[in-house]
UniProtKB/TrEMBL annotation:
<dbReference type="InterPro" id="IPR019079">
    <property type="entry name" value="Capsule_synth_CapA"/>
</dbReference>
<feature type="domain" description="Capsule synthesis protein CapA">
    <location>
        <begin position="1"/>
        <end position="58"/>
    </location>
</feature>
<dbReference type="InterPro" id="IPR029052">
    <property type="entry name" value="Metallo-depent_PP-like"/>
</dbReference>
<dbReference type="Pfam" id="PF09587">
    <property type="entry name" value="PGA_cap"/>
</dbReference>
<dbReference type="InterPro" id="IPR052169">
    <property type="entry name" value="CW_Biosynth-Accessory"/>
</dbReference>
<protein>
    <recommendedName>
        <fullName>Capsule synthesis protein CapA domain-containing protein</fullName>
    </recommendedName>
</protein>
<comment type="similarity">
    <text>Belongs to the CapA family.</text>
</comment>
Length: 150
C-alpha cells in the first residue's frame, strides 16, 4: 500500500480506511505500506496484519529528519492449512537505520550488541527505541507481533 503523510509516524485516516477495507475483503493476510519515509505502526485488524509504514531501508540521508534514516525489516512466517490456504503464522520485525559515519551503510539496530555494532551504541539505542515506540503504538504486541533480536 503506497499511502500516508511523509515523515509522520502514525497512519492517516486514508491508510487506516484502506487497510480495513482490504482486510474486510478477506483477500489479504498481510498488508505492507510504504511512502511515509518513517516507521509507522504494525497492528492486526481482524485476521490481517497491517504494517502501515516500513520507513526507509535505503535512502539518501536527511539529517534534519531523524526518522527518514530509520526503517524496519519484516519477517512474515507463513503456514499452509490442510486445504492448501496460506496465512501469516507469526510476524516479526527488526529496526534498522542508515548511518554515514565513517561510511554510508545500512545497520540493524536491535538491542543485541552484535547487530548494533555498525552504529554508535547510543545512536543505535535511541533509534531502536524510537522505532519500537512507533511500531508498537497501535497494539500489535498484544496480538503477537515480536521484535527480532530483543
Amino acid at each position: 500500500m503506497h499511502a500516508g503523510d511523509e515523515y509522520v509516524t502514525e497512519p492517516n485516516n486514508q491508510q487506516i480506511t484502506v487497510a480495513r477495507e482490504l482486510s474486510d475483503s478477506e483477500a489479504f493476510d498481510l498488508i505492507v505500506g510504504q511512502h511515509a519515509h518513517t516507521v509507522q505502526p504494525i497492528e492486526k485488524y481482524g485476521d490481517t496484519w497491517v504494517v502501515y509504514g516500513m520507513g526507509n531501508n535505503v535512502t539518501e540521508l536527511s539529517p534534519s529528519i531523524v526518522g527518514n534514516n530509520e526503517g524496519i525489516m519484516v519477517n512474515a512466517v507463513m503456514t499452509r492449512d490442510d486445504a492448501g490456504d496460506w496465512s501469516v503464522k507469526a510476524l516479526r520485525w527488526a529496526p534498522s537505520m542508515m548511518v554515514d559515519d565513517p561510511s554510508y551503510r545500512f545497520c540493524i539496530t536491535s538491542p543485541s550488541s552484535a547487530a548494533s555494532s555498525c552504529a554508535a551504541p547510543a545512536r543505535a539505542a535511541a533509534s531502536s527505541a524510537r522505532v519500537k515506540q512507533a511500531v508498537e503504538s497501535r497494539g500489535g504486541v498484544a496480538d503477537g507481533v515480536a521484535g527480532m533480536g530483543a
